[in-house]
Design goal:
The chain is mostly helical. It has two domains: 2-42 and 181-374, no CATH class; 51-162, no CATH class. It has 16 helices and four strands. Strand 1 (51-57), helix 3 and strand 2 form a beta-alpha-beta unit.
């Protein structure tokens, strides 16, 4: 054990002195937290009453304009009516109602309302659907009023609104979580999971390649330290690097971005440490098979990006096609992200992620065994 700790400590201190390692461990994650957290902030928008929409009408809009406003508010929009055209144009989502709206509709004239938005957003189609629902529900009530013989008037619409719907739908959450993870609650776990792969696949592997090419491992082979102690010590150093990354990322996410880790924080730490152990073994394996530093760096970066994209680190896997959601469960990054979502976002008990933990432990043992078999001193 003394030899293992000696090797682990020396490797850990050496890696922590490398500027590239420090950059990717402590600086880059914060930048990615901020960028990805803001980009994915609207992935799970469900109309929570915080969606503003500016509405402007021409002259003599009539009572149907007020009915349209009510239907927008029923769909959780915050409706604002700027007094000037300049003020109207400052809003991101804008609905324009033509002049003489009510008179034209009741006369059977063809006219259109215009919905515009200024910036590309993944929720634009969702907003078009909600605005369309408001418009078409108003049209449906006009048809019903005309067919009843009462005609469309404020009184007939008040009568319709007072009636109990024949068919209603009650929507309830299937679990404690009412929406998929988005924003920082998606970005912080995802970037933390991705950067462990990057650091283990680059720094963790490159250091071993440098030591071999410079003859340091060959000199170490002549020392009284056993092969098993050397390999275990080097794996321990990489696990320690992973733990440092995990602790820093979780603290930075909590302090800087208000991340909440939920009631299952101890199990979250267990999952992440097991994940760090897995990629510590993978870094050792890559360092054993790579011939030079560029090869190790290329394999590490490519692996990190592929595993991050397919494992749900960059975006919530819940918005991806079903085949990607199934593929995620066969990847280490997917195990980590699925376990984190269950524990942090969906309120699942710790027992729900035991299969993920078992998969990580078994994979770590397999990768560790392969690394020990392929480990070369020269």
């Amino acid at each position: 054990m003394k030899d293992i700790l000696f090797i682990a400590k020396r490797d850990l201190f050496y890696m922590l002195r490398q500027r590239e390692t420090l950059l990717w461990m402590f600086v880059m994650p914060i930048g990615f937290f901020y960028f990805i957290g803001n980009v994915t902030g609207n992935f799970s928008s469900t109309g929570s009453g915080e969606d503003p929409i500016a509405v402007r009408s021409g002259e003599n809009a009539g009572f149907l304009f007020g009915e349209l406003i009510s239907r927008l508010e029923e769909r959780d929009y915050v409706v604002v009516q700027p007094e000037t055209e300049e003020g109207f144009q400052t809003w991101k989502r804008r609905l324009t109602v033509p002049t003489g709206f009510t008179d034209s509709v009741l006369a059977g004239s063809e006219l259109s309302v215009e919905f515009r938005y200024d910036e590309e957003d993944m929720t634009n189609d969702y907003h078009k659907l909600r605005v369309g629902q408001a418009v078409y529900s108003l049209l449906a009530d006009i048809v019903v009023s005309d067919q009843s013989g009462a005609g469309s008037s404020p009184e007939s619409f008040a009568e319709l609104n007072s009636q109990t719907p024949t068919l209603t739908m009650n929507v309830i959450s299937a679990g404690e979580r009412k929406k998929i993870p988005s924003g920082f609650e998606q970005a912080i776990p995802g970037i933390m999971v991705m950067f462990i792969v990057i650091v283990m696949g680059t720094s963790g592997a490159i250091l071993l390649v440098i030591e071999r090419n410079q003859g340091l491992l060959r000199r170490l082979a002549y020392s009284p330290i056993s092969r098993g102690s050397i390999i275990t010590g080097k794996w321990g150093a990489r696990l320690a690097i992973g733990i440092v990354q995990i602790v820093f990322a979780m603290l930075a996410g909590t302090v800087l971005f208000g991340m909440e880790w939920g009631p299952n924080l101890p199990m979250v730490l267990v999952i992440m440490i097991a994940y760090g152990a897995l990629f510590g073994a993978l870094g050792l394996l890559l360092g054993s098979i790579a011939r030079n530093e560029k090869q190790a760096a290329g394999i590490g970066v490519l692996s990190a990006n592929v595993l991050a994209a397919l494992g749900g680190c960059w975006w919530p896997i819940e918005i991806a096609p079903s085949w990607m959601q199934k593929l995620q469960l066969f990847l280490p990054t997917g195990w980590a992200m699925d376990a984190m979502h269950k524990l942090v976002n969906f309120g699942a008990p710790p027992s729900s992620v035991l299969p993920h933990l078992a998969a990580m432990i078994v994979t770590s043992l397999i990768l560790g065994w392969l690394a020990s078999r392929l480990f070369r001193f020269s």
